[in-house]
């Protein structure tokens, strides 16, 4: 393709990307800053008065703070539990030859292809039939199930990168298991551990189906509270505030994750799915 | 490395075992409830009554409508996503100034939560949204046009493509970048134009990624709940919204189970059908 044509395409696409991302997000930001005393309605192109009042109101009068507490305490717990449970499996998948390994590697991905609302509903009915009604631990368990495939997959790739020569050399030099782990395993799997912690954290913050169904009607997370502002009681400014609360931190974390993945295992780990 | 079987079993139980046991239990629960067991509202015993009620009884019209609607949304979303992603992946195959920024911008929607995406789109297309205000301000339209919750579900398909196209782009970019220059150059030397090269070289060699993208997007879109609820036509149900409605509002867990099984059937066979169709198209294209 000629260079000139390429340039035209590039500007065209950057313009499109402007409409693609910049316009929607600025509108959300504007809506979140509309002062409650003066409404923003047709035919005003811009709101008449801007303030942070909505943000304060949301914090004080809705259950946003509870939802944030729930989301931001569930996510690190889910990440930690998932990594701890996933690591031995990942080690076995990467380092041990056993019959059926390839099949197992595929089977562990099943939660990714079952529609999330099917999992959410029948996970709930499973809990009911076992007479388990505690919501917080149930949602935690659901998140560990949903995101285990990501952790197993990322960590398997990391464990594959552990150099057996270093393991053997350390052993020959008389290192104890902890020392072997420190010199041979840790450097290779550290980026993978960080990456899986981050991805499970982000996905757990964003998870909607299980939190919505298992948590209904009174347990809120950030996505479920956003859904409530988009549904029956549609309040555009409130939805704008929650949207920004949900997207902001996660985008930053995702960019960090992308860098981690690039340094760890470029080709082998797919996107969020 | 070899280890005794019990060591392997011990290692894979907490991760793999946990997933298999729990997902197995969840799916079995759906199957069991669809045939009358674990009935929370009546007698639990084997019965095909729930199947009959949902797929051929009073509720059947509503069910098949939702089934067709979800199949329609999922097929269009998957096909449109790859049709848009292909030329971009080919264009970005060789890095040029600005290509990295561009690909980052195109992939950004992957980082945006689905519900947020739906909300953002509504702001843009609503009755007093950006498009309407802009068109009236510029004098192109006399009065606002109603675009939200459109009858054909174009809003939902747009959202699916917005959210899923980057995923197709990621998969296709990977395999397009693996194409060797010598093969493409050889085709060009033999007189193949860019369309012929795409049909006879690129398409067959990247077919697997194409199929993977189609399958994953189809499955995701077939099970959609949030886009449908927020931006979908108010008169239609997707399989997921119907399932939630039957379970929550009607309180019929067993009926919801039937819909769940059928949703999984749709996701499995629908995605396979789209993937097989892609293979067929690619075969015809090489002729």
Account of the 3D structure:
By secondary structure, chain A is mainly alpha-helical. Chain A has one domain (63-270): MetI-like (MetI-like fold, Orthogonal Bundle), CATH 1.10.3720. Chain A contains 12 helices and no strands. Chain A has helices at residues 3-32, 53-61, 64-95, 101-107, 110-113, 116-129, 135-160, 164-172, 177-206, 209-215, 222-230, 236-264. In chain A, helix 3 crosses helix 9 (177-206). Chain A starts with a helix and ends in a 9-residue tail after the last helix. Residues 265-273 of chain A have low confidence and may be disordered. With 287 residues, chain B is mainly α. Helices cover 74% and strands 0% of the residues of chain B. Chain B has helices spanning 5-34, 49-55, 60-91, 99-107, 114-125, 130-137, 154-178, 181-189, 194-205, 207-222, 226-231, 239-249, 253-286. In chain B, helix 5 crosses helix 7 (154-178). Chain B is globular. In chain B, 44% of the residues are buried. At the A-B interface, helix 1, helix 3, helix 5, helix 6 and helix 7 of A face helix 1, helix 4, helix 5, helix 6 and helix 7 of B.
Using only C-alpha atoms, the radius of gyration of chain A works out to 23 Å
Number of helices of chain A: 12
Characterize the overall form of chain A. globular
Kindly report how far apart the N and C termini of chain A lie. Answer: 32 Å
For CATH, the homologous superfamily of chain A is named as MetI-like
Itemize the secondary structure elements and their pairings:
The complex is a heterodimer of chains A (273) and B (287).
Chain A: H1 3-32, H2 53-61, H3 64-95, H4 101-107, H5 110-113, H6 116-129, H7 135-160, H8 164-172, H9 177-206, H10 209-215, H11 222-230, H12 236-264
Helix pairs in contact in A: 1-12, 3-7, 3-9, 6-10, 7-9, 7-10, 8-9, 9-12, 11-12
Chain B: H1 5-34, H2 49-55, H3 60-91, H4 99-107, H5 114-125, H6 130-137, H7 154-178, H8 181-189, H9 194-205, H10 207-222, H11 226-231, H12 239-249, H13 253-286
Helix pairs in contact in B: 1-13, 2-13, 3-7, 3-10, 3-13, 5-7, 7-10, 8-9, 9-13, 10-13, 12-13
């Amino acid at each position: 393709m000629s260079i000139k044509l390429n340039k035209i395409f590039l500007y065209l696409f950057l313009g499109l990307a402007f409409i693609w991302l910049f316009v929607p997000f600025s509108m959300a930001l504007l809506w979140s800053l509309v002062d409650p005393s003066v409404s923003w309605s047709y035919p005003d192109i811009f709101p008449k008065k801007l303030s942070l009042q909505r943000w304060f109101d949301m914090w004080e009068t809705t259950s946003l703070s509870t939802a944030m507490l729930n989301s931001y305490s569930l996510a690190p717990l889910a990440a930690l539990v998932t990594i701890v449970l996933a690591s031995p499996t990942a080690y076995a998948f990467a380092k041990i030859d056993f019959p059926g390994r390839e099949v197992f590697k595929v089977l562990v991905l099943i939660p990714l292809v079952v529609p999330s609302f099917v999992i959410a509903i029948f996970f709930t009915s499973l809990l009911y039939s076992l007479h388990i009604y505690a919501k917080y631990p149930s949602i935690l368990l659901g998140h560990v199930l949903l995101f285990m495939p990501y952790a197993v997959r990322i960590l398997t790739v990391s464990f594959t990168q552990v150099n057996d020569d270093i393991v053997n050399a350390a052993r020959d030099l008389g290192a104890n298991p902890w020392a072997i782990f420190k010199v041979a395993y840790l450097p290779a799997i550290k980026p993978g551990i960080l990456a899986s912690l981050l991805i499970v954290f982000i996905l757990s913050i964003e998870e909607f189906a299980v939190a919505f169904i298992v948590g209904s009607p009174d347990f809120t997370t950030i996505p479920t509270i956003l859904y409530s502002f988009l549904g029956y009681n549609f309040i555009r400014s409130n939805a704008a505030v929650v949207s920004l609360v949900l997207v902001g931190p996660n985008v930053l974390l995702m960019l960090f994750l992308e860098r981690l993945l690039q340094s760890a295992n470029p080709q082998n780990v797919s996107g969020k799915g | 490395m070899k280890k005794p079987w019990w060591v392997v079993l011990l290692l894979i139980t907490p991760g793999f075992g946990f997933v298999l046991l729990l997902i197995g239990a969840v799916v079995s629960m759906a199957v069991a409830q669809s045939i009358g067991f674990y009935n929370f509202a009546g007698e639990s015993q084997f019965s095909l009554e729930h199947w009959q009620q949902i797929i051929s009884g009073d509720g059947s019209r509503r069910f098949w409508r939702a089934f067709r609607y979800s199949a329609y949304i999922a097929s269009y979303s998957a096909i449109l996503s790859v049709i848009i992603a292909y030329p971009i992946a080919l264009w970005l195959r060789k890095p040029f100034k600005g290509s990295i920024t561009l690909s980052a911008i195109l992939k950004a929607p992957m980082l945006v939560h689905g519900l947020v995406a739906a909300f953002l789109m509504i702001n843009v297309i609503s009755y007093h949204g950006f498009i309407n205000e802009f068109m009236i301000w510029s004098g192109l339209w006399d009065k606002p046009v109603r675009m939200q919750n459109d009858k054909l579900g174009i809003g939902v398909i747009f959202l699916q493509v917005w959210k899923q196209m980057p995923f197709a782009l990621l998969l296709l970019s990977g395999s397009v970048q693996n194409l060797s220059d010598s093969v493409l150059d050889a085709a060009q030397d033999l007189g193949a134009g860019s369309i012929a090269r795409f049909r006879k070289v690129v398409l067959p060699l990247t077919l697997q990624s194409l199929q993977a993208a189609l399958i994953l997007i189809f499955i995701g879109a077939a099970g959609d709940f949030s886009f449908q609820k927020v931006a979908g036509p108010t008169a239609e149900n997707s399989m997921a919204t119907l399932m939630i409605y039957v379970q929550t509002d009607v309180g019929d867990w067993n009926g919801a189970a039937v819909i769940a099984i059928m949703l999984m059937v749709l996701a499995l066979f629908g995605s396979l059908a789209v993937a097989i169709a892609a293979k067929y198209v690619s075969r015809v294209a090489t002729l």
